[in-house]
Design brief:
By secondary structure, the chain is mostly beta strands. About 5% of the residues lie in helices and about 35% in strands. A hairpin with a 4-residue loop joins strand 9 (about 130-135) and strand 10 (about 140). The longest helix is centred in the N-terminal third of the chain and has 10 residues, at about 35-45. The protein is rod-shaped, with a radius of gyration of 45 Å.
């Protein structure tokens, strides 16, 4: 059985293989790297095996950088550095190189991204930054605007930034509930005058109250309107300074002001040009 492996195949087949002495075969040890087929066969003979080529023999040919095996009739090249094609090349030492993915100077926290013509590394570990596509590439940027992002992922909304534009529309029979918006409008007093506010969002007016900032006189009133149409009754503001007066009625025919519509506050002086300065608070819901 000299020259056969444990499965009955000829040749060496395993680097630094030892065949047990108790099997009746002398232990041997061979290098598997040879410049020629003849050099391999001579080495076989030197360890007590057949110096003839046998089916199953194989070695690494250092001249052609290939693995050669004998099929019982002739030697065949079964793998070589040149036989591997595409993006990967393999050297004679067995080192594999992916040509199109060669990345240098990589560091912890880097990610791989495709550049204009090759794969490139991108340092993505900057604290508190996120990856954003800009239409051409990916970039690391800090969260900006009304919020900041900490390194642990905690998002903090800045103080004094939330207002009506952040509020969702409130549907009829909304099971979650909606958030009210408040329009605060000051009037100058002293004469009959209108104060107009153009609303950016469609709004359903739900409540109005008026704070006197000075004493009123008889027949002084505030009326809240949708353009020229009255939403409320004429609210009596003839009371003393600091008095709060509330709406009595709201006309549902006009209580919804369209986006870009006019919220009009009409102050009517009852006589004497002495109607009070006021602050009018108009409450509502954004609606679709």
């Amino acid at each position: 059985m000299a020259g056969r492996d444990k499965m009955g195949r000829g040749g060496v087949g395993i680097h630094d293989r030892h065949i047990a002495a108790d099997a009746g075969i002398r232990p041997f040890r061979m290098n598997l790297n040879y410049a020629t087929e003849a050099a391999f066969l001579a080495a076989k003979g030197a360890v007590g095996l057949s110096s003839s080529a046998e089916e199953g023999d194989w070695f690494f040919d250092t001249t052609t950088n290939s693995v050669k095996a004998h099929n019982g009739t002739q030697w065949e090249e079964i793998a070589s550095a040149s036989s591997i094609t595409g993006d990967v090349t393999v050297s004679a030492a067995g080192a594999a190189t992916v040509t199109d993915l060669t990345i240098a100077s990589e560091a912890r926290g880097d990610i791989l991204r495709r550049g204009a013509s090759a794969w490139e590394r991108h340092a993505a570990k900057t604290s508190g930054q996120i990856l954003v596509g800009d239409g051409t590439d990916i970039v690391s940027v800090a969260v900006s605007g009304d919020a900041t992002l900490a390194a642990n992922g905690a998002l903090t909304v800045a103080d004094s930034v939330l207002e009506g534009s952040n509020v969702a529309n409130t549907a009829d029979a909304n099971v979650i509930g909606g958030i009210e918006v408040m329009h605060r409008v000051n009037t100058a007093g002293g004469a009959t005058a209108d104060t107009d506010v153009t609303l950016t969002h469609k709004t359903l007016i739900t409540d109005v109250y008026v704070q006197n900032n000075a004493a009123g006189t008889a027949s002084d009133t505030i009326t809240v309107k949708n353009g020229s149409n009255a939403i409320t009754d004429a609210i009596d503001i003839s009371g003393a300074d600091k008095t709060i007066a509330r709406v009595s009625t709201i006309d549902d025919a006009y209580s919804t002001i369209a986006a870009a519509g006019t919220l009009k506050i009409t102050e009517t002086d009852g006589g004497g040009s002495d109607s009070p300065a006021t602050t009018v608070y108009v409450r509502g819901l954004r609606v679709a």
